[in-house]
Amino acid sequence: MDPQLALVTVLLVFSALTSACETAIISITPAQVRTLVESKRRGANYLAKLKHSHHKTLITILLLNNFLNIAASTITTVAFTRIFADAGIGIATGVLTAVILIFGEIVPKSLASTYAKIIGPFFAPALYAIGVMLTPIIFVLDFFVGIMLKFFGAGQHTQVTDEELIAMASIGAEEGSIDAHEFALIENALEFNDIKVGDIITPRVHMDALPEDYHLDNAAEFVVNHSHTRIPIYRDNIDHIVGILSIKELLRAVHEEEHPEKISIRQIKLLTPIKVPDSMHVKDLFREFKKKRQHMAIVIDEFGGTEGLVTMEDLLEELVGDIEDEMDTDEAHVKTLGKNHYEITGRTELDEIAELTKLEFEHPEYKTVSFLIIDELGQLPREGQSILLEGWQFTVTQMLRNTILKVELKFLES
Predict the structure, then answer these.
(1) Span 91-103, pLDDT tens digits
(2) 372, 350 in Cβ contact below 8 A?
(3) For the whole prediction, is pTM greater than 0.70?
(4) Which fold, 197-320?
């Protein structure tokens, strides 16, 4: 074999290997590298070092690849010029361009993207050693690259955002590598930090609370008829919550006292209520619950009054979905009465209505059907009053004082 042809072949082989290394190292994710290191895969530690110094790694690969390709091009051009005279330059350029493109770029990079976790660790030690030998040159080039990046305002940035993590989890769910419920848990966990207490509050009109002068026997009867394990206790009115009564403490007091009908709630031990604004993030409230070992907080409005309450269960449901126990009822928010005809509760969320009716609500701040009806009417509704949105009629069918309990929803055929 012609020595020059043999040398060009060797150079092109190394060029192909360098291209494969570039794609493998770039395409492999930090999480995959960590997994390889933890599994003690040979070469994984060197791969981690290359990923950590990605600028220097890229410079090393580009230096090596360009040197190999230029050397191969020079030798080929000299050989072809000797054979084909002046036409040799054009022939060498065309032939070598095709060879480098196919065998030095497309094929090795395609293989490397598929087998990144095999190729990356295998060639990482050699590439790291070459980088060490080229350190002086790499240092100078990296210095100038840093200056150029600063000049163009390309500073440090977050490597992976929440949106990208959710997108990756979504792809994993579509490909079957993670289950649908696992994807939902990942998505909820990433969105947990953005949720505020006001988004998950139980409003005061739906709160069950007892006055502090309530006797223990009456409180016990109240507990029997409700499924709560903790009950807010107020003085004078619900805007003045003075404590949280735990069912365990109530049962202890009823058991120990000879005349529970003569003992009021204020005379037994109550938990000091945690009071928080509705603007507080649930992640901060979660830490507060853990710190104070409590499971209920009273949400106060801007005037210091009671806006509602939120529990540890409410927070956990934002992560894992609805948590139902043997005391929870199965009453649905939406009951189908016929074609395009439903009975819904005032607390039904508009997201659920939008999915049911394909309506697009103009006001994203609305949370429930009750808010929507009150805002559209401009006043508290009466039973029988209705609003009409794009052919869908919302009719209030049941009220309890100022609270909308039931609404009839039907589509009016034109």
Answers:
(1) 888 888 888 889 8
(2) yes
(3) no
(4) CBS-domain (3.10.580)
